[in-house]
Fold this sequence. Notes:
The chain is mainly beta. It has one helix at residues 92-95; strands at 3-6, 9-15, 22-29, 33-41, 46-55, 58-65, 72-81, 97-104.
Amino acid sequence: DGSTLSASASLDRCFPNPFASRTAIQFSLSRSVWVRLAIFDVFGREVALLVDEVKGPGQHRVPWEAGGMASGMYFYQLQQRAADGSASGLSPEMLGLGTGRLVLIR
């Protein structure tokens, strides 16, 4: 379920998916930007914040340990911001949002 964020970032599929307890989410950046990678449950509640910082260009792989989480569907979302972290007044399209689906099976 990968999706393109902007000319400077892309969100790749996570692997493995479905998964039993651990998976990894990959994304690519062509330049340094502030990124926020979070996990949400089906009700839209944020259940994990994996990244909230400036990342440099290249391929990034972020593991998620889902210990203690219930079986079911989750969503991962990568948000790209200005390098200074500012987001005020920008629409989601300008921030560059990408979302993917995860299935946790126990």
